[in-house]
Design goal:
Blueprint lengths: L9 H11 L2 H8 L6 H12 L17 E3 L2 E3 L18 H12 L4 E2 L7 H7 L5 E5 L4 H13 L4 E5 L9 H6 L8
Parallel strand pairs: 3-4, 4-5
Antiparallel strand pairs: 1-2
């Protein structure tokens, strides 16, 4: 059976994305900055995680829920912000927000989402989170925070890694970014 029709693992989905997406979009999603050593270290560290197997237990009712920040989530995880998600699927951020809401976990809209804060609010019935990059333009940041508040966002997720942008070598090589960031 074709991998495109029956992906079952993260590496399968990665390969499907690599085949389907234009190189620039795949590289942006799949890559990291500079020589991608930190990205590799993170993947390796995640691979070392082990799930604790429990045997001879009643599995007729499995509860993966967790109470986090005073709310009950179906699993102790949230959808992290993905910049430009709307480039990967039509109204990608809306689709992700609806999926998170349906599954019972928080969704975090990226500061650089294609869909607006207001569009996500209109498309969902529960509060979502908003990622805010710490940027020099405090007026723009204040405007974004007000819009997130007005849309009913229940949390701000601050991202502080923009002081110095890392050069994304893949983006430079494939023409998505023609300048070296420093």
């Amino acid at each position: 059976m074709s991998l495109d029709l029956n992906p079952v693992s993260v590496s399968d989905y990665r390969e499907v994305a690599r085949k389907r997406l234009p190189t620039q979009l795949f590289d942006y999603l799949d890559g990291g900055s500079y020589a991608e050593r930190t990205l590799g270290d993170n993947v390796e560290a995640f691979g070392r995680l082990k799930l604790r197997q429990r045997v001879l237990r009643d599995v007729s009712h499995i509860d993966t829920s967790a109470d986090v920040f005073g709310k009950t989530w179906t699993i102790p995880a949230a959808l992290a912000p993905v910049g430009f998600a709307g480039m990967y699927a039509r109204r990608g951020e809306v689709q992700a927000a609806r999926a998170a809401e349906k599954f019972g976990v928080p969704y975090t809209l990226s500061t650089v989402g294609i869909c607006s804060i207001e569009e996500i609010a209109k498309a969902t019935t529960k509060p979502f989170w908003f990622q805010l990059y710490v940027i020099k333009d405090r007026g723009y940041a204040a405007e974004l925070m007000k819009r997130a508040h007005d849309a009913g966002c229940s949390a701000l997720v601050f991202t502080v890694d923009l002081a110095v942008l890392g050069a994304r070598y893949r983006d430079i090589r494939n023409g998505m970014n023609t300048k070296m960031s420093a």
